[in-house]
Every structure is written in structure tokens, then in C-alpha cells.
Prior knowledge:
- It is a single chain.
- This protein has helices spanning about 15-30, 45-50, 70-75, 80-90, 110-125, 140-160, 165-175, 185-205, 220-235, 260-275, 295-305; strands at about 5-10, 35, 55-60, 65, 130-135, 210-215, 240-250, 280-285, 320-325, 330-335, 345, 350-355, 360-365, 370-380, 385-390.
- By secondary structure, the protein is of the alpha/beta class.
- The chain has 2 domains: about 5-305, Rossmann fold (3-Layer(aba) Sandwich), CATH 3.40.50.300; about 320-390, Immunoglobulin-like (Sandwich).
- An 8-stranded mixed beta sheet has the order 3-4-2-5-1-6-7-8, with helices on both faces. A 4-stranded antiparallel beta sheet has the order 9-10-15-14.
- Helix 3 packs across helix 5.
- The chain is globular and about 75 Å long.
- The relative contact order is 0.13.
- Adenosine-5'-triphosphate binds near residues 12 and 247.
- Its EC number is 7.3.2.7.
- This is arsenite-transporting ATPase.
Amino acid sequence: xxxxxxxxxxxxxxxxxxxxxxxxxxxxxxxxxxxxxxxxxxxxxxxxxxxxxxxxxxxxxxxxxxxxxxxxxxxxxxxxxxxxxxxxxxxxxxxxxxxxxxxxxxxxxxxxxxxxxxxxxxxxxxxxxxxxxxxxxxxxxxxxxxxxxxxxxxxxxxxxxxxxxxxxxxxxxxxxxxxxxxxxxxxxxxxxxxxxxxxxxxxxxxxxxxxxxxxxxxxxxxxxxxxxxxxxxxxxxxxxxxxxxxxxxxxxxxxxxxxxxxxxxxxxxxxxxxxxxxxxxxxxxxxxxxxxxxxxxxxxxxxxxxxxxxxxxxxxxxxxxxxxxxxxxxxxxxxxxxxxxxxxxxxxxxxxxxxxxxxxxxxxxxxxxxxxxxxxxxxxxxxxxxxxxxxxxxx
Length: 395
Ligand SMILES: Nc1ncnc2c1ncn2[C@@H]1O[C@H](COP(=O)(O)OP(=O)(O)OP(=O)(O)O)[C@@H](O)[C@H]1O
Ligand SMILES: [Mg+2]
């Protein structure tokens, strides 16, 4: 079974450098490795000092690179999907004549979707044992990761799978939504899209295959953002199995200017250690020169990534756990660094909706919860506990 590791963190903290060192290490261990940049501001080429583009390029023995271009993917590899999406929204001008897909801004996350679909396709090709994904800074990565769930929810709600439902909906659809509902052929495409999206979620949330590693530097703003990021990744039930703290000042600098900085860094390193608990943490020193070219990557590998277990899944914390108890059922969700004022909880009968800021997570409930309702919800020591009790019979 292949492995996917996604790197994320605040802008400029060293995501690309850490991702590249992982990729190089995997190749040196004899694994067929692909490093993929899903950041629109690609810089793998600069780092490896080899031209890497929208087609897979060989960098070294067993090491390949790709800088995903979502427009190119839409036009080349996913034309069927694109056609079915275009059919759904006929009024939308999607082509600006230069092959760019204008109008897609209406569909936030569409670019991210095609990047994810490409990674899924590469994984399913079985060519690579390790796929390393270098992501854009936090915010964009979070929208990337929440997207499959959001989109399949949207597809399910607006285009219920099943031909009968489609026929009934058609006139209503035309009149009120100004969206032409897909004909039978297109609907088959919709079904395909739905199945693909479900597969996408399953792949990225499969804790035996995919994990997320965070990169941070010991500075206040970065630590705060790392904590939020970690909480949201838990909210969406992704497996975080590594943290890399970069740009750590050496303690033996003979210059009093850095004394205070070294103390501050220590404080933030300790704060991160406390939060990340059992998750393995890698420490990377601040080098006296930037990280450029294979020699520099190799030095980083030698200094920090010399562990042959680097690609094992390190930490599987079950984020969503159901237990039976005396009152009924208890659902526990791991949500580190969250205060209870920030969370809103809704129940719909079929799912529990957790809303934190702009993020919404729908947790589908197992069938046995049909006759149960929420009686209480508590946030204690990073764990949200939602108690379900059996509904009373109404007379
Ligand atoms: N430990 C380090 N010592 C010295 N220079 C470093 C270190 N880590 C990263 N750099 C340099 O800092 C710059 C940013 O690193 P990198 O590109 O890996 O960050 P990033 O998080 O991917 O940035 P972006 O958010 O822009 O994608 C690069 O020039 C890199 O060479
Ligand atoms: Mg980068």
C-alpha cells in the first residue's frame, strides 16, 4: 500500500524544504517517490534546481516531481468531468479563449478539487510508493482539505443519486435554480463524480495511507496559527502524525543580540511540545545559508531525516469515537486548543454539525442513532463529548 504525506504550515516556515527532504530520503531508501506541489506559487524547480512542470519529471534516481496545474488537469485528464460540470451550469462562460477557465471563481475550491483528483489518480496508478504533497500556506490547504466533503455533500443534496429522483426534480430545477439538471448521460457523469469524490475523501482520511505533517517555526504568530491548523485538521478527522519545528537558533552563538531570541524560541518550542503531546516532533536548526539544491537537501536529510521509520504512520489517534454508556451513546471528538465559546453544535437526525468560525463539519451518524437525540455536549481537556439518549415515545 502506498503512502501519501501532506505538508502544511504558515507561509515561509519551510514546508517545501521539509517536504523535499522527505522525498529525497524516501528515494534514498529505495522507494519510488513523487513530490507534488499543490501550491499555485510552485517552487520545486527552484529548490531542486531542475526544471519541473505540469508533467511528471525525473529529478534523480527514484525521485520524480510534478507541479500541478489545475487548469491543465481539467483540460487534459478530467475532460469528462469538466463537460458534466459545464452541462450543469450552461450559462457560465468557462473558457476565455486562451484555455483558461474563467468563471470558475463562482465555484470556490474548484482548482483545489482538480489538484486532489490528480493526486488520487497518481496514487491509484500504483506507480509510486511514497507521494509527498507540498501545499500552499495554511488557509488554502484547509480549504483544499475540507473541499471533498463539502462538494460531495453539495452533490448529494442538489443532485440526489438515482434516476427517478432526477426526473421528478427536473422541472423544479429549471424554474427555480436556473440550473439545468443533467440528462441521463450527464447524470452518469454526476454519479461518476460523486463516486470519485467519495473515494477522494476515503483516500485522504484513510489513516493507514494518508497523514499530514505540520511545519512551524518557534515564533508567536506561527505557533498560534499552527494550533488553529491542528485543531481544524482534527475537526475534519485527518491524521496528523508529525510536526517539524524549523529555524531553531543554535545555543552557542557568541552574540548577546540573540540571547533573548533563544529564550523566546525555547518558550515556543515548549508550548508546541505540550500541545502535540505524543506526536513525533523533528527539530531543524537555522542554517547559515538558505536551502537550495540537492547538496543542501542532503545535508538536511543527514541532520534531521536519518530515521528509517520516517514513512511509517506514527500516531493514529481515533478522532471520532462512539461508545455505549449507561445513558445511551457517547460520541467523543478530539479538538485540541479550542475554547467552548467558539463551537456551535447542531443535530439534524442524520448528522451532527460542528461549526467553528468559517468551518463546518458534518459528522454522519450511524443508523442506530435514528432514535437517539443529543442530551448534552461538553468540551473537556480537548475532547468534545456529545451524549445521545434514546428519544422518548410520543403519545
Ligand atoms: N532551517 C533553515 N535554515 C536556513 N534557511 C532556511 C531554513 N528553512 C528554510 N529556509 C529557507 O527559507 C526560505 C523558505 O523556505 P521554504 O520555501 O521551504 O518555505 P515554505 O513554507 O515552503 O514557503 P512558502 O509558504 O512560500 O511556500 C527558503 O529560502 C529556504 O531555503
Ligand atoms: Mg513552499
